[in-house]
Amino acid sequence: MTLCTGIITAVSTSETHTFGKFNRESIMLLTGLGVEGDAHLGKTVKHRSRVASDPSQPNLRQVHLIHAELHDELHVAGFAVSAGQMGENITTRGIDLLGLPTHSRLHLGDKAVVEVTGLRNPCNQLNGLQAGLMSAVLGRDEQGNLIRKAGIMGIVLAGGEVKPGDLIRIELPQEPFQPLERV
């Protein structure tokens, strides 16, 4: 099942392991690797904590996506956060990223396809950006379960150029759907 429900509002990269990423006019997604020129590019993990525990792990965090609606929510709560500042590569609008099942495929622009692998696990570096930001991107549901709102992660199945204004089509996996877990 394919749905067309969203748009890319910003794309960002950083060649070094800085927390925030810089907005770009476009980015190139590379099949099986991630975002060209980004510090997290590669088949195996690049996040420092994961490299320290096992550098041979597959990189399930090649692309980080955040919904612009989170930025809106944070602005209402008094935070000044813009696209790329929380480390995301792609900022979207109009898609419930957190509600997607694992293995959903996001068709970005004309050619690129990203498969959703799971939730981003927010870290204390968010508080370095603004005090209290880490708590602001965590919540609880009615049963008291932790909700991670800091975006989703994915792997690149098909490469291509991605830029602000590109449409996003969602291809859902076969049922039964698997809920997103942190990766």
Automatic annotation (TrEMBL):
Pfam (any one): MOSC
Domain of life, per lineage: Bacteria
Gene Ontology molecular function: catalytic activity; molybdenum ion binding; pyridoxal phosphate binding
Residue intervals of the MOSC domain: 21-171
Record's protein name: MOSC domain-containing protein
Lineage, highest ranks first: Bacteria, Bacillati, Bacillota, Bacilli, Bacillales
